[in-house]
Prior knowledge:
Elements: H1 2-23, E1 27-31, E2 43-47, E3 50-55, E4 62-65, E5 70-73, E6 75-80, H2 82-88, E7 92-93, H3 100-110, E8 118-123, H4 136-140, E9 148-152, E10 157-160, H5 162-168, E11 180-184, E12 190-196, H6 200-203, H7 211-227, E13 230-238, H8 240-251, E14 258-264, H9 267-276, E15 279-281, E16 285-293, H10 323-335, E17 339-344, H11 347-360, E18 368-371, H12 380-386, E19 389-391, H13 394-400, H14 404-408, H15 419-424, H16 442-451, H17 471-477, H18 480-485, E20 503-506, E21 523-528, E22 531-535
Parallel strand pairs: 1-4, 6-13, 7-8, 8-9, 13-14, 14-16, 16-17, 17-18, 18-19
Antiparallel strand pairs: 1-2, 2-3, 5-20, 9-10, 10-12, 11-12, 15-16, 20-21, 21-22
Helix pairs in contact: 2-7, 7-8, 10-11, 13-16
Bound molecules: zinc ion.
Zinc ion is lined by residues 79, 81, 236, 434.
Amino acid sequence: MKMGRFVTTTHVLFYAIIMISCNHPKTTVLSNCNIPSHPSANSILLSNGKIIDIGSNLSADRSIDLKGGFVYPGFSDSHMHLVGYGKSLEKLDLVGTTSVSEIKNIVSDFYDKSNKWIEGRGWDQNDWQKIKYPTKEDLDAVAKEQPVYLRRIDGHAAWVNSKVLSICGIDENTEDPDGGKIIRDENGYPTGIFIDNAIDLIEKFIPKDTSVDKKRYIEKAQESLNKFGLTSIHDAGTDIETINILKELIQENKLSIRVNAMLNNNINDYNFYLKNGSERINNFLFVNSVKIYFDGAMGSRGAYLLEPYSDDKENVGLTVTSEDEVRKKVKIFNKAGFQVAIHCIGDKANRIALDIFEDTNNKLYRNRIEHAQIIHEDDIDRFFDLGVIPSMQSIHCTSDMYWIDERLGNNRVHRAYPWSSLLKSGSIIPGGSDAPVESPDPLLGIYASITRKDLNNWPDGGWFPEQCMTIDQAISSITEWSAYSMFAEKFYGSIEKNYLADFTVLNQNLSEIDPEDVPEVNILYTIVNGKIVYQYDQ
Ligand SMILES: [Zn+2]
């Protein structure tokens, strides 16, 4: 009897163990690591893509030795362009070019007289010795028979050759479209530069990317982004085709970056969602937001300003969507439960967007202003008061600081990129890169946030250094604040129990090194959903 009971108990135990090991999902421990947000812990226990525990010497079915690396919540880019970034990896990269002749050399290398469009991106005449727009003749000299189409670094201007003008049927009789400008010579002939909505006159003739192209761009983009330590991004303007590709990648278990999609303000892209409401798939795709362009950009003098440009006294910039239209859309989308993100660069665009949100706003929608670059003093507190999130890209500050005083003049240039003022008033600032406008490298973003200097340490002491972020704020901007702005802060963006297991593992503690050393920090591991998607290879 005694014996029998023993046998039975052992059997029960035996089966119980089998049952537990079968039903219990496999656990993984990240061991031998430093966790700046949990200084007394050295390991993180994961299961099913989530954090189960954080503590000392935890054990699990499987262990990953992080070799003393510093574990941060997975870095998140709050504003970039996923397909555009992937595509840029296949285009002529003109970022950092210092003259027209350098660009001519690059173009001539790709010139094969075929009818395939030579596309490039990243030129910036403000970085050249002769600061003026280039011309079609510059390109004709090296590429006469093949269309050449080169977008400016901010995407708000395009430079083309004569072949493109003839393909598109553009000549001195072509009128400027609303919200756009064709730059002309003294006789009214187009010089080859197109600003803002005028770019559409050309875009419609460029052979469209197929869905196969787009899928390849996304796969290239995510691989590169994972290398930079990014585990999630906010896609600032997503079309329905891209959403379907992302769903396909999720199904194929191939998506290695979480995407918060801000839908394009285009009926074909948002109509389905307006009818059916927001969507979240496997915590890899979030659709709960619509992006609307309001004004242009500063580089091309399209940002909408309260007072005219200091270097163009007749010009206050432009709006690419009318104020009435923006107001109408905010009402419609908020009513349907969607967050609205409005692109605003100039101080007037920002003020009007705040007015619109004030009229229709409910803090629950966490409406956002993308870029929020130039903000009048009177409008700083309104962001926090109205619950409107300024979604900013610190690296734009250090790219623009060389010339923005010419655009704005000394009396108002301090209104540019006022991070500290916004943070002091209570706002959070989700941080992004606007890639492919800038590099998506989040360490460059952190460096710009805490120094307001370029990589050559210029200017001494930083550009309006009183507006710098602290290192803690800069880290929050690409972790928890990014999560908040996509309604995910209760399960994403921090290292806490039950949060998603996304981590960026560095070889240094960002809070303990000199700010100047931040760009040199190495990404040791990028972990998404508990899986290593990038590993540093020495
Ligand atoms: Zn953007």
